[in-house]
Amino acid sequence: MERKLLLDAEAVVPITEDFLPVLRRWGVPSDRIAVIENWAPLDQVMPRAKRNRWSEDHGVWDTPVFMYSGTLGRKHDPKLLMDLATALPDAIVLVISEGAGTVWLRRHASGITNLRLFAFQPEESLSEVLGSADVLLVTLQEDAGEFSVPSKVLTYMAAGRPILACMPANNLAARTILSVGAGRVVSPSDPEGLVAAARELLARSEERHRAGAAGRSHAEMAFDIGPITDRFEEIFESAITPSPMSIVRV
Hints:
The chain is of the alpha/beta class. The radius of gyration is 20 Å and the shape is globular. It has a six-stranded parallel sheet, with helices on both faces. It folds into two domains: 2-39 and 224-237, no CATH class; 53-222, Glycogen Phosphorylase B (Rossmann fold, 3-Layer(aba) Sandwich), CATH 3.40.50. 43% of the residues lie in helices and 11% in strands.
């Protein structure tokens, strides 16, 4: 069904060049494909001090916080978050999500007091919510690496917080984190490496500051909505403008 939809489309906009081999195998013409990477809204997600209204309201402003925010579904492994909380009793692992992943955590991690689960928060609180974290977490299963690029990574960068990613290193999001110096990436098959990286980041405040600043700097450069809008308008215009071969004269 997806292949048919793409073949019928006047234009296809993949979010990474990693999707191009599949599109070519499916026979999507190259002249209909234009890669535009995802972005985050810079005016809606801003760096905030850790001590802010949200962190004070929830009692986490003076405690180390590892935060996971966003979808927690089949492409993610909630057990990694449970195990991280178990391994770091002096920190809080704070999960803001809804659905199957949080249901699993409520069932299997009810006795882990430093694992705190929240429903999705109001959009207007997003900057303060993310600002309440010392480190922001992202996970992605190994077999999901070739068809998924977690957009939460881009929101994290806009928030100016360091990222600890447990995901395939060849994924675009992982490559971006490493190339701009926005945090660390460990393999989803290395839970011990995740814990070790978390402990090191907690102990290295200067590294956390550098990584958060690097992520925000990249966001300000790459997420400028003006050029992104221009590119989409070019694609729309090309798609709706008939080519000479398609003009039917009566």
